[in-house]
Amino acid sequence: MTDDTVARSLRERLWAEHRECDAATLAGTTPTELVDGRWWPRAEEQRARLDRSEAPTHRLALLRGVSPHARGLLGPIDGLLVDG
Fold it and tell me: Which residue among 20, 52, 59, 62 is least packed, with the fewest CB closer than 10 Å?
């Protein structure tokens, strides 16, 4: 196995765990397909259930008040705080 193969296998197993599905169902999908096509819809569905005070059916849910763009701020903030 190459490092790329090991990394991909690990990534697919972790995504499968978070999606609560078999890793074989995710084999061959790109990271973009995993996030946009499989992760976001499930997370949005569960967030909507929580907003309606319904019990979630899966562990995965979007966190209220967390912007998907917040990570873009980390680089400049780290630069200011860490690098001075």
Answer: 52
Cα angle for residues 13, 15, 16 (degrees, 5° grid): 60
pTM: predicted TM-score of the whole model, two decimal places: 0.56
Question: 30: burial class by Cβ within 10 Å (0-12, 13-18, 19+)?
Answer: exposed
Under 8 Å between Cβ of 47 and 65: no
For the chain, the domain total comes to 1
CA separation for the pair 82, 76 (Å, rounded): 10
Local structure of 70: helix, strand or coil: coil
Q: Which domain holds residue 30?
A: 3-81
Alpha-carbon distance of 68 to 65, in angstroms, equals 10
- Average of per-residue pLDDT across 20-28: 83
Q: What does the DSSP 8-state code read for residue 28?
A: T
What does the chain come to in residues? 84
